[in-house]
Amino acid sequence: DLSRFYPISKDEAKAAIDIPPRERLLLFVGRIEPLKGIDTLIRAVALMQMTHSLECCPHYLAIIGGDPEETDQQVNKEMVRLQALAHELGVRDLVLFLGKRDQETLPYYYSAADAVVMPSHYESFGMVALEAMACGCPVIASDTTSIPEVVGDAGILLKPTDSDAWSNAMSGVLAS
User: Fold this and answer.
1) Is the pTM for the entire model greater than 0.85?
2) Residue 12 has pLDDT above 90, yes or no
């Protein structure tokens, strides 16, 4: 829906979602489940911190999906696993689990992001990639299922479980 998803200036978008203008943001939008490959992103962010210069590292990896405020009994097991992984790898302060966001807010996140990252092992269509591209946001996505057809040459396509490749691609986008 191009009346909803369109480019917004980066400064306006960051102000709308309370991100300081100079801070770098990588964004994941989707369900919190193993199939989405979020663990690959967390490992890649940890690798970036160890191997790349600070200007090539994100200030945040924002994860939109799920609800991080649920009680312990309600929390999705995958969310618990991912939070523990981020803590174990020393990037818990960089990985923000934001929970669900409504359709009116998503264009601000896409427009504020330096890249939308989609390390999914499977995608039936790739709506997030289309929404991000409509907002003018670069996409780094898995070279799997329908994603290459959706993203084409407009994005970077990687194997879904190669944390080194994800680290290098995300650093490259942040450095440009």
Assistant:
1) yes
2) yes
